[in-house]
Structure formats: C-alpha cells, structure tokens
Amino acid sequence: MTDPTTVTFASLEQRQDRIIGVLTGTRRSDRLRKTREAIIVAVLFLAALVSIATTIGIIYTLGIETYNFFRRVSIIDFLTDTQWTPLFTEKHFGIWPLLVGTLIVSTIAMAVSLPLGLLAAIGLAEYAPPRLARVIKPILEVLAGIPTVVYGYFALLFVTPLLQRFIPQLEVFNALSAGLVMGIMILPLVASLSEDAMRAVPQSLREGAYALGATRLEVVWRVVVPSSLSGIVAAFILAVSRAVGETMIVAIAMGQVPRLTFNPLVAMEAMTAYIVQVSLGDTPHGTLEYQTIFAVGTTLFVITMALNLLSYRFLKRFREVYE
Amino acid sequence: MRTDRFAITEQEFNPRLPLRRRFGGLFGLLSAAAILIGLVTLGLLIADVVRDGWQVLSWDFLTSYPSRRPQDAGILSALVGTFYILLLVTVIAFPLGVAAAVYLEEFAPKSRLTAFIEVNISNLAAVPSIVYGLLGLGVFVRTFMLGRSLIAGALTLSLLVLPIIIVASREAVRAVPPSIREAGLALGASPWQTARYFVLPAAFPGILTGTILALARAIGETAPLITIGALTYVAFTPKSLFDPFTVLPIQIFNWVSRPQPAFHDRAAGGIIVLLAVLLLFNATAILLRARLQRKIRF
User: Fold this and answer.
1) By CA distance, what is A58's nearest residue in B?
2) pLDDT digits (tens, 9 = 90+) for B244-293
3) For residues A88 and B6, what is the distance between their CA atoms, to the nearest angstrom?
4) Residue B256 to residue A157, Cβ atoms within 8 A
5) Helix, strand, or coil here: A217?
6) Which has the least CB within 10 A, A3, A154, A323, B248?
7) B interface mutation test: which of A6, A14, A54 has the most B CBs within 10 A?
8) Which residue of chain B is at minimal alpha-carbon distance from A244?
9) Chain B contact for A44 (CB, 8 A cutoff)
10) What is the Cα–Cα distance from B22 to B183, expressed in whole angstroms?
C-alpha cells in the first residue's frame, strides 16, 4: 500500500529538483518571479479578506432589511408590545414573546450544562486517571458532533413522552424537553473549555495547596477553580451564546406559538424557530413577513455578538495571567 | 469564638481529615455522575434512533424519492443533495480556507489589519448558523439572484465552515517546525515556493483532518439551508447548480414535523444514515491524525 508520508516526501524531492532547476536555469527572470510571487501573495490575501467580506455581508444584509422593517413598524412597538403576530390579520410586532421563549429555553439548557459541564471538567482534569480521561473525553465530544436535527428528534419523540409520564400536563411541544436536551448538547462545550482553563493553572499552585495539607477537593475548589475562573466564565458565556443561537431543537420540540409566558411546560416559540417557521413558507421578497425574520435575526445577532465579545474579553484576561 | 485566631493549642487543632476526605469522595462521585449523564444520554439517543429506525432501512429506502405514503418514502434526493453540497463546499471552502491560513501564518505582516482579520475569524466561528442562512438569503438568493439553488446553499455553507477550516489549517501550518522553512529558503526557494513546496506538504495531513471535521459540520447543518429556502419535499435529483435541492437533515426535519408515527420512523432511518456518514468522516479524521502522529516526527 502507499504510505502517505513517503509519497509526500518523494514528491517533495521532485519539487526541490524542479525548484533548483528553475533557480539555476532562469536567473534572468528574477524580476518575473518577484512579480509572480507578489500576485500569489495578493491572491492569498484576498482569501483572508473573505472573512471580513462575510462579516460585512452579514451586517449589511441584516442592517438593510431591518432598516426596511423599522420604516414600517415603529421600534417602540417592537420593544414594548407584548404580542408577536406578524402572520395574522391583526398584526403585532412585539419581540418579547420570542425573546422570552429563547430566554426560558436557554435558562433550562444552562441549568443543565453549566453544573454538569463544570463537574465533568473537574472530573476529567483533576479526578480521573489520565488514561481514562483520554478515553472518555472523545466519547463525550461525540455529543457535540451530533447534528442538532437529531437532538430535536430525541427531544420530541423520546424525552417529551418520558417526561409526560411524570408531568401529565406537559404539552407535546414544550420548552422543558427542548431545554434539557439542548443542555446535554452544550455540555461538552462547557466541559472542554473549562477543562482547558483548569489545565492552564500551573502545577505549582496545586502543589502549594497540597503542601499546606489541603485535600484534593479543597485544592480543586479553593485553588484550581478560582485561578481558572475567568476561563470558566468565558466558557459559560460562550455556552449561553450557543444556546441562544440554537435552532433545530427549538424548531422541532418547543413549538411555534409565540406567547408571552414563563411556563416551560407549554408550547412557545424561540427567535430562531420563528425564522425557520417563516422560511418554510414561501415568503415573497419585500413583504413585511420577509423583513420580520431579518429584524429577529438582527436581535439574535446583536445578543450573540455581545456575548461572544464578552467571553473573548474574559478569555484574554485569563490568558494574560498565565502565559 | 476565639478572639485570637493564631492561638490554637495542640489539643484544639483538629484537621477533621476523614470528614474532609469523605466530602472529597462524594464530590468525585458527583463529577463521575455528571460525565455518566452525558454518556448515558448519548447511549439512549443512539438506542432510541436505532430502535425506531432500523426496520425502515433497506435498499429501497436509500433509492426511493420521498412520498406522501410513508411506506414508499425514501431518501434518494436528500442523499444526492447532501453529496453535491459536500462536493461543492469542498471545492469552494477548502482552497479559500487553506489560502487564508497560509497567508495569515506565512505572509501576513504584523499589522492592525492582520489582527482585525484574526479577531474577525474567531468571531465568525461563534455566529449562530441561522444568521449565515439570513446572509445567504440576502446575498446569494436575492442579490446574486441564484434562487433557492444548490450553488446558493453550497456558498452559504462554505462561508459557515470557512472559519473552522482556517483555524485548523493555521494550527497545522504553525506546527511545521521553522527548520523546514529555513531548509527551503537555504536552497534558494522564494517565500512562496517555501510555503508551497516545503510547509504545505508537511502540514497537509493536519489540514486534511481539520477540513474533514469542518465538512462533517456542513453535512449536519439544517437551519441555514432552510433559511435560504431549500425545499423540504423534493422528488427529483438536481441536474445543475441552479436546481432546487434538499439534504438529509432537511428531509429528517420534514419527516419529524409530520404527525404520523410512520414518518417518524422514516426520520429515524434517515438519522441512522446521517450518523453513519458522520461516523465515516470522523473515523477518517481520527485515523489520519493517528497516522500523522505516528509517522511524522520532526
């Protein structure tokens, strides 16, 4: 069989020969080579600029349609009205039902993923034998690689029927199952980022605490966790951002009823689920319905962006301490 | 209460070590339970899907178009759509991502613009996927007038996975030791020739691993494609880049959303196929990484 490494280095040798040939044979075309080189670097630079173009594209697309939306709907209604009924004849454009739906499901997800994620991180970084941790970690991370549509299936057709046995008044679509399943989905993210933060704590701090007679729990809880707190907080904030932007679980299992309630047992609608609901229908460009999904998208983008930047600041602080 | 906290006599000093150790043990159990909850959920999820879906798996299921009658419904159009999307995303995102990574690692000057590009890439990686869907809807579907086509979907997903490919490729390029570059430069190769013929071949296995994982992400994405208007019921396979399409996750979503349990089993069957494809991708990535770690030692 072909060995990829040998193939790589064999072709490397051929190419070296060719380079040397180019160098010795065509000295006079040095200037040509410089031009060619500059063009290639410029092309590479353009590829790097695609990321900036993407950001500009997102802000421009969201901005222009949101602007069109607010020319027809007052921003005060958007922020103060408590009903969201753009698809009905009597239209209301208050973002609160969607915002509260997102808030409820994210809170439930966080109530699952934050404690479990932190505990799992402590278990993997401080308690488990390294060999066992190396086996468990990738399996746990499989959870993060499963498509969200699969989690939606699991929430609607497994978790909800299971919970209904204990909570009979639980509706078929509800925020509770969606939130619980989302929490499990985000668990590896919290665990893996928190573990990274804890591993960055210098061993000497742990040894100092042990030398003073602390038990393992005391070392973890009073030395390691406080020292890595900004990294852990960064992980938590990123997890919240992930929950807010999560789409398929809420679209499948939480329902499409935009009502302002704090009861997690009934159907609600999250911001992302509304975008999916409208996208599934054939909404012509330029209509108010079409513009609503961009207004909701902008709200979503602003919230997640703020969380991401906050998380980035925490992370930077934690890096400055130990690197 | 003691008034002087340093005045502890030997009799008073009581470390209560057994109690503290017991607390520690309890906490260890708690963290083991947390890990176990994750693992058990994963097991339940897979068991549930396999229990519901295994009996619909058949050659007919893979080679039939979706249908209004659940017993005839298959995933052919979704499977073909996923394959085309995969192909197009690879063609679009892979060269762009590697080029950007090589630029940032090998050529970028230390400037504000470079720093801005870097922060921007890490920010993009955390933008919710549905926002990319809105971007695709506004730019590719409307402005470029590509419609709800295969190419519009592929471009949208390419932008989505680009940050992942760039970050992974940068790590792979950074892992190539400076001595390799110095060898290239010493032979008289130009900076680009060094990057192209010395650094890239050495970094290639790492780049490939990162790209495969990014493609796995693209295969599982549903929300951005629904947002750009990919159809949920497609009883044909796309013939050109500008044809409408569907993909596996969307087909699964469509079947889950129906009230009839027979369609739910079809969804479970689709999930098994989707997870099998993802498993294949991840296994390839893991094998590649293992091979790379064993074979290449600088």
Assistant:
1) B135
2) 899 999 999 999 999 899 999 999 999 999 999 999 998 888 888 777 76
3) 73
4) yes
5) helix
6) A323
7) A54
8) B128
9) yes
10) 59
Q: How confident is the model at residue A5 (pLDDT cuts 50, 70, 90)?
A: very low
Give which of B103, B130, B212, B292 to mutate to test A binding, by max A Cβ within 10 Å: B130
The residue to which tokens 């926002």 are assigned: B131
- Say what the pLDDT of residue A13 is: 62
Q: Which chain B residues contact residue A282 at CB under 8 A?
A: 229
Beta-strand runs (E) in chain A: none
Q: Which residues of A touch B15 (CB under 8 A)?
A: 213
What is the per-residue pLDDT for B216?
93
Class of domain B59-295: mainly alpha
A residues 74..93 contacting B (CB < 8 A): none
Strand partners, A5: none
Q: C-alpha distances in angstroms, B92 versus A209, B161, B215? A: 53, 10, 12
Do residues B170 and B200 make contact, with C-beta atoms less than 8 angstroms apart?
no
Domain coordinates of chain A in residue numbers? Answer: 4-72, 96-322
Among candidate residues B86, B60, B39, the one with its CA nearest the CA of residue B266: B60
Nearest-angstrom CA–CA distance, A187 and A190: 5
Judge whether B15 is closer than 8 Å to chain A, CB to CB: yes
- Using the predicted structure, report yes or no on whether residue A322 has a pLDDT greater than 80: no
| pLDDT bucket at A22, cuts 50 / 70 / 90 | low
Identity at A311, one-letter amino acid code: S
In degrees, to the nearest 5, what angle opens at C-alpha B45 toward C-alphas B43 and B50?
95
- How many Cβ contacts (< 8 angstroms) between chains A and B? 288
Structural tokens at position A94: 């208050």
Question: What Cα–Cα distance (Å) separates residue B138 from each residue in A23, A57, A168, B44, B85?
Answer: 49, 9, 44, 40, 20
B residues 183..222 contacting A (CB < 8 A)? 187-193, 197-198, 201-202, 204-205, 216-217, 219-222
Q: What is the CATH number of domain A96-322?
A: 1.10.3720.10
Which residues 236-295 of chain A have a CB within 8 Å of chain B? 238, 241-242, 244-248, 251-252, 272, 275-276, 279-280, 282, 285, 293-294
- Write down the H helix ranges in A146-270: 148-154, 160-166, 175-199, 203-211, 216-219, 225-227, 229-245, 248-253
